[in-house]
Design a protein that fits this description.
Layout: E1 4-11, E2 17-23, E3 26-34, E4 40-46, E5 49-57, E6 63-69, E7 72-80, E8 86-92, E9 95-103, E10 109-115, E11 118-126, E12 132-138, E13 141-149, E14 155-161, E15 164-172, E16 178-184, E17 187-188, E18 190-195, H1 204-210, E19 246-248, E20 251-253, H2 256-265, H3 274-284, H4 286-297, E21 304-311, E22 314-322, H5 328-342, H6 353-373, E23 391-396, E24 412-417, H7 419-428, H8 433-441, E25 446-448, E26 459-462, E27 467-472, H9 474-493, E28 502-509, E29 515-522, E30 533-537, E31 556-558, E32 565-567, H10 570-589, E33 596-603, E34 639-642, E35 662-663, E36 669-675, E37 679-682, E38 689-696, E39 708-720, H11 728-739, H12 750-765
Parallel strand pairs: 30-31
Antiparallel strand pairs: 1-2, 2-3, 3-4, 4-5, 5-6, 6-7, 7-8, 8-9, 9-10, 10-11, 11-12, 12-13, 13-14, 14-15, 15-16, 16-17, 16-18, 18-21, 19-20, 21-22, 23-24, 24-28, 25-26, 26-27, 27-29, 28-29, 30-33, 32-38, 33-39, 34-36, 35-36, 36-37, 38-39
Helix pairs in contact: 6-8, 10-12
Amino acid sequence: MAHTERITDLVFPNGDIYSGSFEEVQLNGKAKYTWSDGTIYEGDWEGGKMSGKGLIVWPSGAKYEGDISGSYLHGFGTFTGPDGSVYRGAWRMNVQHGIGTKQYSNSDTYEGSWKEGVHEGSGKYCWNGGNTYIGNWKGGKMCGRGVMKWVDGDRFDGFWLNGFRHGSGIYSFADGGYYFGKWSRGLKDGKGTLYPAGCKHPSLKKWHNSLGRDDKNFFFSHSLSLNSEAGRATRPSVKRSLSEKIFTDGVLRSTGRILRRASLSDENWGLFDHGRNIRCHESSSMSFHSSHEEQHEAQDNSTLFYEREYIQGVLIKERIRKLAEISPKTKQHKKFNVKEATRNSCVDIFKGHQSYYLMLNLQLGIRYTVGKITPVPMREVRSSDFGDRARIRMYFPRKGSQFTPPHYSNDFYWKDYCPMVFRNLREMFKLDAAEYMMSMCGDDGLRELSSPGKSGSIFYLSHDDRFVIKTLKKPELKVLLKMLPYYYRHVGEHENTLITKFFGLHRITLNGGRKVRFVVMGNMFCTELQIHRRYDLKGSSQGRFTDKDKIDETTTLKDCDLSYVFHMDKLVRESLFRQISLDCMFLESQRIIDYSLLLGLHFRAPEHLKALIENPSALPCGDGGVSQGEPLIPSNGLLLVTHEPSSVNNAHGSHIRGSTLRASSLGDKEVDLLLPGTGRLRVQLGVNMPAQANRKLQQDDDSGVELFEVYDVVLYLGIIDILQEYNVKKKLEHTFKSLHFDSTTISAVEPKLYATRFINFLKTVFPDVS
């Protein structure tokens, strides 16, 4: 039987004092321990460590009262900082972790989720001035979907990144006006629409839903994932116990300094007033000042609204519209096209909850496959890895099985094609298996794009935008499997290939036998920069234009819509066309046609116009205060600097593999792109490529002087839609229409003619100006 002894005021040689119970040679029961520096603990002990309920008081005046486990603050407790700030909530291993409330010394308050000592998850922050933010946080900053409300009645509902508005959102003015648009790093960037006070505007519910999730549920993003709190990966803690204690010759030695460190490591100050700071940005931007003026001007006419376009906060284009211009006929035409797009496609199979279940099925299957194939030792692929038997099959019953977890979706069968091949491809593309799992199967889940493609395919995006998941038709699946051995060799030999990067190929069989095939691809527009224009270029004019009534900020334009040519560095251009030629030769060898160059443009605001962000009244306007078209903006040049690997932004994306490009303007050295206010970006083929966009202006006079509009742009490009195999019988009609070939050219060499026309067209888009 253990011997328990009560000791009063036992003084150790180092000056620590203990009053309480000993059991054998360990501290057990209730006791008081005073360290030589003045730190005091009163509470429960077990096995020589503080465990149970207790109170710790530091010499600085800070104190903690609550649960303690193994000498760590662990469980639920209240911490009062030396400055008077108070945190009450969950703790894990000495840091705030879980649900908790903190009142800062400046009277700011935060209530919500914490992770590793900072705001992470859903939470509400109230500044002492009355501004509030309710939404998602990451790493202590507003990140994800959230709502900011200002004390004067203004409100922003949309997406945030690192504490700034970033992405789509709705700014509501206190007087009833609305601005629907996009932001980048706190500045308006891209197209948007201003509805002054009193003007009829679209349904707010519709716009809230278009932001990405239903407004009622956007705080509960974990419900769209197959993960639970228990399944979250936690990084190993490097913190030591509050009081690591050992007996040496009967003397208790304490690391009370660790206790003091814990009191100082807590964040005892609130956030600077993001609300006030953001309003400063907003009130200094064109739309905020001018919107009030315009709203007063438009009081007598509730039918006017303003279509605008911004580049890094600078208003470059504005068009006054009347609601009457949006005719019922146009709306009916759009509605009809939506029906046409969904006919004979997967879209009608998966609506509402069914699409959600499909996403869960996809996540469950990918997690199973990656978890099964990753432990297999790396090796070179064999011919059998491409064969019909190279499949992973598994049945996922709702209740779970010996090999699969229980889930909330419907029962389904899973098939993974050529798992070893795609595992090696992911390695080749420098994609870590754990990162891939977190992107595809993490807590934030997947999200479905708002509309299907022309083919009727469904598209999903990973939560971090790194991957695009697309449904395939059976013929497309067969083409990819047939091409796969040659694709594997091509991307292995050419690290700078512009061809779509494939990361996985899967099939889900649902109840009733319906089969849905998926391919996971890299998203070439995964960038911190705003993509202002997107083009799908084939080198044809037949049907290659977009109805103006259908164009919005997400529209991918076509060949005939492109009015720019792009001038770039000589070496960069040579590298581009060298790789395009190699990729087209590969596609030709596989008898592939109908592929496209997907081109994304990020426009840079000229330096001399950035002052307009602070002085919107200086914006050049035409008659009636409205700019006529796009103003003539001379370029100020993008800054290329010598490449420094340690200085560039190492944002992960599907483009992480590939060499850094060289530029003749810097003596044939590898280069980075320096963007003021953004960062330093590594220039690669198809990624962060600097250029000048030139457009010839139409002139009404006969002066003989040619005027051009020039913008600095950053280009993102890649070759897509590579799963259409040429077939003389099936493609005859298509070839006549899209390529304008005569009957004499219809032959087995059709893919070569397509490649030739494709490359020649691109040479007019990216002309040689050396």
